[in-house]
Each structure stands twice: as C-alpha cells, then as structure tokens.
Amino acid sequence: MSEEIVRAEGLKKTFTLSKKQQKIEKTGETRRIAVNDLSFSAYRGEIYGLLGPNGAGKTTTLRMLSTLIRPDAGDAVICGHSVVKEPAKVRDEIGFMTSELKLEGFFTPDYLFNFFGAMHGMEKGAIERRKRELFAKFGIDKFAEVQVKNLSTGMLQKVSLVIAIVHDPSVVIFDEPTNGLDVLTAKVVTDFLAELKAMGKSVLLSTHIFSLVEKLCDRVGIIFDGKMAAEGPLEEIAKGDLEKSFFDLYYNVKGEML
Amino acid sequence: MKLFALMKKEFHRFFHDPRLIVTMLLPGIVIFLLYTFLGEVIHTEPQTYDYKVYVQGEAPAVTSMIEAAIEVGDNTVEWLPLEDIDAAKKEVEEGNATAILTFTENFMQFPENSAVSIVYDPMDEAGSGFYGISVAVLQEIGMKFSILSEPLTSDENIGREIMQQILPFILVCFVFSACMSVTLESVAGEKERGTLSTILVTSAKRYHIALGKILPLACISMLGALSSFLGVALSMPKLMGLSVGMLGGYTFGSYILLLLLIVSFVPLIVALISLISTASRSVKEASAYTSVLMIFVMVISLVTAFVPVIGDWAVVIPVLNAVIFVQQLLAGTLPVWQSLVSVGMNLFYTAALVFAMTKMLSSEKIMFGK
Q: Most buried by CB count within 10 Å: which residue of A186, A209, A243, B355?
C-alpha cells in the first residue's frame, strides 16, 4: 500500500438548528449532528470518493478537511499537518474546489492565477512557469486575457480547476465535482481528475453519482447520517455492482428500502 | 507579499473599471457645477435698493457723482448728516442704514492729504453694493486721496463662519457616502458571490485579508470624499455670493491638521462599514444596516448644532470628535493635544475594528452560516 496522505480520526461536527429550520423539519431538536465519529484514510496517487445521499455529511467532512470549518471533536492530518492545529499549513498542501467558491468575473484568468499564486506565497517566476504549463495543458492560454465573466461554462470550470491547483498541492479536494454541470463540462472535470491522478496527486471527492465513483475512484467511503457505513477499496465495496451494494447497505443500516 | 497582492487586487478592480472611477468622482463634479450654476442664478438677479447713507465732511461734487452712478440702476440714495458716529454705526450693523461716508476737511482742495472712509456691512447686499459703486466712482476721479474701508464684519470672518457651520457636517456626509459606495459592494458583494471564500481557502492570514480590504478601500474612499469636498468647498463661495479668497484665511498647519483628520477618519468609517458587510449575508442586508449606521452618524455630526458647549471628553467619541475637530480648526481655536488625541483615537478604533473583522473572517458561523 502507498503512503497515507490523509488520515481522518473521529471527526465530529454539530450545527445549531434555527427556529425556522426546526419548524420546516417539524422537530424540537436544537442541534443536528452532521458528521459523527468519522474516520478514514486516503493514499498518495489515489482518488478517494465519499459517497452518500444529500445531507449525509459529505460536504461538511470536506469543509473540515479544507479547514473552512473546525471539527467539534476529532482531527484530520493531511501531509503531516493537523487541520485543527495547523490550518494555514494544511491550506498550502491542498487545493479545494466546490461550486460555492467563485472567481470574480471582472478579472482575467491570467490575473487571478497570479493573484492566487501570490496568496499561496509563490514567487513570481514559479507562478509564471506553472501558468505556462497548466494553461497550455488545459487550453486556457488563448483565453488568458478574457474576463472571467465572458468565458464559456466549460472554460470557466477549467480556469477554476487550474487556479485551485496553482500552488501544486499534494491533495486536491472536490466537493460534488460534476454537480449541475452539462455533459461537456462534466467531461472536462472527470478528465481533469484523471489527469491529476496521472500527475501523482491524491484526490478526495464527494459525490452521489455511482458512475463517477466507478469510473475514477480507487477507494470509497459510504456515509449515511454522518457516519461511515463502509470503507475500503472500490472492488471490495462494490462487489461488482456499486449501486446494488449501496442500497443493500442502506437497508442494513437504516432498516428501510428506498 | 500576500497583503500587497490583496491590496493590489482592490486597486486593480477600481482603477481598471471606468464606471467605478466615474461613480466615485462624478458627485464632486456634479455638486460643483450645480452649486455654481445656482449661485450664478441667485446672485445675478437685478435688484434695486434705497440707500440711506450718513455723510460727514464737504464733498458735494463727489456725492453727486456717486448719486448719479447709483441712480443708473433705478436705485435711490438719501444723504443724511452725521451727528453721532456710534449711533450711525449701530444703524448700519442693524441694517437700518446702508453706510457712513466720511470726507476729511478740505477734501476737494487738497486731495493729496485727504482721505475718504466708508463704513459698511459686507454681509448686507445693499451695503456691499454701495461700497463697490463708491470705490469705483472715487477711483475714476483719479485724484490722489486715500480710500479707507471699514467693514463692520471682516470678509475672512464671514467665510470662516460659513465654513464652521456647514463644512464639518458636509465633510462627514461626503466621507460616509464615499466609503459606503465603495466598501459595501467590495466586502458584502464578494461574500455574496462566494469570491471571498475562495480567498479564505488559501493560506493568507485573516488579518491580511481584513487589512487587504480596508487599506485600499480607505484610499479609494478618500479620493471620492476629496472630490465631493472640493466640489462643495469651491462652489460654496459662488453659491453664497462670496469670493473664494474669503475662505482662504487658514494657515498651512490648519490644512495639514485637516488632512491628518481625514487620513484617520476615512479608514475608521471604511472599517466600520466593512465590519457590517462581513457580518451581513448579502449586499441588501449590509445596505439596510449601513443606512441605520448612516442615520446615527448624521445625528452625531449634528449634535454640535444643538449643544453649544461640549466637554473635552468628546475627543473619544468617533464622528463627534471629527466634527468638533473641524469646527475648532476653522475657528482657529483647536488645541494641538485635542487634534492629536482625536487622530489617535480614530486610529485606535480602526485597529479594533480590523481585529473584529479578522475574528469574523475566522468565524464559520458568519462566513458560512445560512
């Protein structure tokens, strides 16, 4: 087995429910456990997929790993740095992509690449070399001076992806990478993920799309209600049919059929 | 390095968008043009006056020439013999008489050793009109006598009085609106669009992000406030029917102190609005809160108009210290210690607000709460 690059141990996150949320969900609970004692490991050069239904706690887990939110309990170590104790060091080791993170439409890809390179403490020369390499690889060079707001959806997605890895991170974290994208843009993303793996990067992604996991992931963790229901290499979890295994597991854990 | 990149981005965003530059500078230009136009309209309307002038000394040739010049514009003049100079001056002050014209003895025989003095109230349009006509006639005569003008209120004092009453409030209004127009969009807008979160996932320190917003926005706001302030300051004399020279009776030190105040006051307001914007979930929400803040600021800046005596403790109250600072500066009574304490307090509050914004940027509830 290759080098362990992400180790999450006993991650827990609880949110306060507002009066409005309590009313909508018809519950008297004031707190909701989003992630409960979640542990897993991901390895260098592999793609790890967190699979689960909406509200299972996938996004919360990835947000904790990317240091945007702090776990209530537990910790995760990425490239030897704790997300709780050394969040700034973790941020320099990861690239985080989610549909909630946007680029300012006023700027050009060239400007934003330079800006985010500087935000990660890179030298000018290193930024230029990295920009030439990535812009050429993903066909962005012709659009380098076009304002982001004028780019096509596919090109915008490419620019977002490239900017997320401007600092050549060891681990790339994607929350729902193909969610809401058309087939062409979704292919851009899946090709990009495969490319990252080929480059020796470790990728952590969350999804509820079985085909994406089957196509890309080496390991998979299935989450229900914030808890890890099953975790391991894709072949062991899927047993030939990931979708069937997922719903069998769902029945075993929740005691109900969908 | 990271702070520099953050600041550069804000400047780039502003100075590469012609619409933002125009929005920032336009109010000052519009105010200048509008006030100047209004001043032209108000002060060029033809008016007729019935002058009542006290005369002492004999110079019938001169008074008849002045009378002829006055009557050209349908005005009339009544010459009264001067008996009690103090009573006459009082009448001029109260607006019951136009002016007092005094000729020295043997005025016409020995012009080289003679003088004529004119006592008038420059705040009274008839008085200043009579003074202008008289001086023009006396100069036209061409004899070498002295013309002594004795305005009951100095031009400089009039200018100062207007400045003292109006400019502090206007300054606060323009600083606030300039800061609001730039800051609201830049912080709350970025938060709403999700572009601020993109910066939060980098290793930039939170206080760098806070300073990277506040410092450049303060510089840009200063430009906007300066444009509006210059628009008012340069057009106000025209609007009031005064000359620009009347407002120039301040020392270089006064302007330096005023600049110091602005340099400390603008970042304070920008930091305050940035904090509100960071706490808000959208530009709309931030606008609503900032409008309330604006009302507070306006009320504080008007306090001095209703409370004539305010203690030295006011230096610790933001906005109020700025208004008092400007008023005392214009009156020429500002103690140096008070000016430095006011500037120091503003900078202290700004630092405290930067610290609070840093904490907010680190708060997942504020940054990512629904």
A: A186
Q: Which range, of A99-108, A165-174, B100-109, B315-324, averages the lowest pLDDT?
A: B100-109
ipTM value for the complex: 0.83
Instruction: Please give the class, per CATH, of domain A4-254.
Output: alpha beta
Those residues with Cβ within 8 angstroms of residue B161's Cβ, 6 or more apart along the chain or in another chain: none
Contact B57, B257 (CB under 8 A): no
User: Cα–Cα distances in Å, from A67 out to A59, A75, B37, B150?
Assistant: 12, 11, 59, 76
User: Nearest residue of A to residue B190 by CA position?
Assistant: A104
Altogether, the residues listed in chain B come to a count of: 370
H or E, element range at A187: helix A183-198
Domain range summary for chain A, segments of one domain joined by +: 4-254
Q: Tens digits of per-residue pLDDT, A110-149?
A: 999 999 999 998 999 999 999 998 898 888 989 999 999 9
Query: What is the CATH number that goes with domain B50-153?
Result: 3.40.190
Which residues are B56's β-sheet partners? B102
Inter-chain touch A88–B205, beta carbons under 8 Å: yes
- Asked if B200 and A68 come within 8 Å (Cβ–Cβ), the reply is yes
**Coil, helix or strand for A74?**
strand
A68 contacts in chain B (CB < 8 Å): 197, 200-201, 364, 367-368
Q: Which helix (H) or strand (E) holds A31?
A: strand A31-43
